[in-house]
Amino acid sequence: MNRYVLKVCRYVFALPVMILMLSEGSAQNNLTVRSPNGKIWVQPVIENGGKIYYTVSHNGSVALRRSRLGIIRNDGDFASSLSLLSVSDILPVKDNYTMLNAKKSRITYVANKRVIRLQNSSGRKMNIIFQVSNDGVAFRYEFPEKDAAVKSITEELTTYNFDKAAKAWLQPMSVAKSGWQQSNPSYEEHYKQDIPVGAVSKAGWVYPALFKTNDTWVLISETSLDSSFCGTRLINDSASSEYKIGFPDSREIFTGRGLLPQSVLPWLSPWRIITIGSLKTIAESTLGTDLAKPAMTIDTSFVKPGKASWSWINSKDDHIIYEEQKKYIVYAADMNWQYCLIDVNWDTKIGYDKIKELADYAATKKVGLLLWYNSAGDWNTTPYHPKSMLLTHEQREKEFSRISSMGIKGLKIDFFGGDGQSMIKYYHDILIDAAKYKLLVNFHGATLPRGWQRTYPHLMTTEAIRGFEMVTFGQQDADAEANHCTMLPFTRNAFDPMDFTPMNLYKIQTKVERKTTSAFELALSVLFLSGIQHYAESPEGMNHIPEYVKDFLRALPNNWDDVKFIDGYPGKYAVIARKTGNKWYIAGINGQNTPESIRLQLASFGRKKAVLISDGDGDTGDSLFSRRSFAPGITEPLVLQLTARGGFVIELQ
Fold first, then answer.
1. In a domain, 124, yes or no
2. What is the number of structural domains in the chain?
3. What pLDDT score was predicted for residue 636?
4. How far is CA 332 from CA 160, 297, 537, 622, 636, in A?
5. Is residue 426 part of a domain?
6. Is residue 29's pLDDT more than 90?
7. CA dihedral 622, 627, 628, 629 (to 10 degrees)
8. Alpha helical stretches, state H, 317-351
9. pLDDT reported for residue 14
10. Residues of 370-385 as b/e, b for ≥16 C-beta within 10 angstroms?
11. Band of pLDDT at residue 13, cut at 50, 70 and 90
């Protein structure tokens, strides 16, 4: 055989192998999903042993290294020995929706979708659905087969693997049954800031979890959490920069009911969402509601965002009495606020009959009453009441019907028991029953809502934060308030409404000394998002505030149409603009113990007049604040020197 014939034979025999290699390479490439603008890439890959991994890139740099995917069900392994059945074409996704309780009122979500269809060694099927938008990556697991037998997920192998040089801004999950009256977990810890990846928290880390890898910011969370699933968290060990999805502590359940995800088939998991880009991307993204389940069909005429007066934050338990609450109703009316919240033990300190009198009186002032309830069964030992009145559908029907007929507009429900599947179902059951009686809902001592405010438009807000009540309890929290608040636009309040109960303008009515300035506190009224904003100021304190500040609060919008990130850094400072109608409001806070210089290009907003309210030079009366009006410059930026722990608001007309 001559040399030419030998070469031909080698080519002919090698051709099937080459074709197979090309085919396999094409199949792997076909798993890739890019964002519409091409800047974010997700590259799943099935490796030897049938395990599936993914990487995420942003602007050509790796944001997440090789990370794991997969599920273990009680009846099968969907994490190894997987084979690829098919891959869908890239499918364009577009969704337009409106919200009254978000950073934007009209939202458009655009993404590219791909479905990877797999089967395990037993022939059972699992799909992984990827959707990639210009602001991030989302994926979820789907079990498409039909089966009336209840399945349970015992482990999720999803991981997020960072470069070891990445930094993290994370809130530790509190340990179940710890804290006051065994009321944890309730997402109320201080954030660990700018820490190395790999730092460990005993019970894991809560969502949203913020990371910085090189110049890219990554915010991890979940959304569309239905009653079949548990809430999850991130867990890791100190030897690794890889974070894994973790399930709750076994004690985080509705007594006697389930912990782990369980459902018949077909079945969809919650979306895992990864917002990727700059801090501007994080602060302006709506990914947490974009992928939430659309709004339930209800009459939404009763869903009215607003502001509320609230006596408990200053005067605590002993002042939940008739005359005090009447005073706060008058206060709300004077401030043009829509609601007044009556807190713990009202059922005995005031009673249902007198609450009805207060509701009737409030109605004459165009103020709606909100009532506090203790959600708890026996999962904690909290003594406050009304307690254990909402545990069953029948109990809720009876109580909701009663208070609705009294003219009550909504409920604050406190002291939930964690993230187990049965506890998540309890949240959903309450929301479904409350909608029937046109009652607004505020969850406290609670989990992160994970986009529920889109699904249930009457969910006005949720605590799930170390809020201002902690500042009133101790000096340590007061000392940390400014720094803590600058974390929240980039983490907790990025997607979901947050009942921080902000804005104490004068002084705290306890022995605690507030360390933020009055203008810092005023800025929180714009910076923080909550369907109902419960303000931490008393009528007596408001008497010390200049009339122009009161007028600002009287006219402040109850919801927002648009948002712009101006400047900031988590744990240091934050400046954000919000729009309603033809007005923009800009709010800024400095979380540091040193001054911070801010440059604002106000001309870009296209408005003719600006009113700036900032810190004054004293600590009483008019000296608490300063105000000036001016025409925004066409080219020159406005330079503001924020004092330590200071702030400002600007109204652009």
1. yes
2. 2
3. 81
4. 46, 31, 11, 22, 40
5. no
6. no
7. -120
8. 322-334, 346-349
9. 38
10. bbbbbbbbebbebebb
11. very low
Radius of gyration of the chain (CA): 26
The better pLDDT of the pair 606, 45 is held by 45
pLDDT in tens, 216-244: 999 999 999 999 999 999 999 888 899 99
Distance of alpha carbon 203 from alpha carbon 252, whole angstroms = 12
Angle ∠(182,514,370) on CA atoms, nearest 5: 55
For residue 369 the two structure tokens come to 């009453």
What is the domain extent for residue 7?
1-27
Both 104 and 225 in a single domain?
Answer: yes
For the record, the structure tokens of 518 come out as 């009055």
At residue 311, what is the residue type? Answer: S
What's the mean pLDDT in 53-77?
98
Compute the CA torsion angle 8, 11, 12, 13 (nearest 10 deg).
120
Q: 59-87 in b/e burial notation, b at 16+ Cβ within 10 A?
A: eeebbbbebbbbbbbeebbbbeebebeeb
pLDDT-derived band at 530, boundaries 50, 70, 90: very high
Around Cβ 540, how many Cβ atoms within 10 Å?
14
Q: Is residue 68 part of a domain?
A: yes
Confidence of residue 496 (pLDDT cuts 50, 70, 90): very high
pTM value is 0.95
Report the alpha-carbon distance of residue 143 to residue 322 in Å, rounded.
Answer: 55
pLDDT in tens, 458-494: 999 999 999 999 999 999 999 999 999 999 999 999 9
Please give the Cα distance from 81 to 44 (Å, whole number). Answer: 16
Give the domain CATH number at 43: 2.70.98.10
Whether 433 and 400 have beta carbons less than 8 Å apart is answered as yes
Instruction: Report the sign of the C-alpha dihedral through residues 68, 73, 77, 78, in that order.
Output: negative
- Contact at 8 Å (CB) between 156 and 80? no
